[in-house]
Structure prediction request, 255 residues.
Amino acid sequence: MVFAFHLLQQLWQCGGRVLIQPCSHVGHLFRSASPYTFPREGGVGSVLQQNFARVAEVWMDQWKEFFYKLNPGEPRSPVGSDLGIHHVLSSIKHHLRESVLKCRGFEYFLKEAWDEHFMPNASRIVGQIVNAHFPSRCLQRVAPNDEVQVADCVQPGKMWYPPQIFIGTEKGMIRGDEATCLDSPDERRVFAATCIAQNVNQQWKMKNGMFVHSASSLCLDLSSTNKKAVLRSCDVSVQQQYWTFQSLPWEVRVD
Prediction:
């Protein structure tokens, strides 16, 4: 998958385009087993991590920091005998991208090719959603299509705890990652569901510290056990209906 995404980035950032043909079907055929061996310590996982890191270093500009923070298992650079090879390849690809091909930046790719992306930008907020009444409790995703929990906040350091990281978008969606958004289809429970841009059940408004569900006009609240997120009638006197979207720094400036 990393290679497919890498090729897509290269095409768009370096003057080409990949278009979707309506009614077409695209699939990815996976082998049941790899015909190659991976003698390196860590096996295939180590190889894939290095490939992801190289794509981030060469092509993602300041968004590479966001990638690393959301993927604590991805090393910024390999160790041991692979370190030199990694830096050489990254340097060559940087030179090829900037000086030879004169490719555009990752921001162009996000605007022109991936307008439904989950990456942060100047118009979005990324961070933890903390309950104002219980400031040690945060929203937390468990798995796609599962109810959203409220759990003890994991303090972000160099690395973030991805299940507690959310991105508030310009369209009022609260994204957990590239595929899931906060959703409430039955006007009571809150799920991490597959993102659908036109789904009003996935649109929210922040009003005076309260998250208001656009479709139902109900407010984000805690369950009776304080362990799940639910929707209830908005009541300004109910302190646990107030939340703070605590912004976290996500980028490294690229001059």
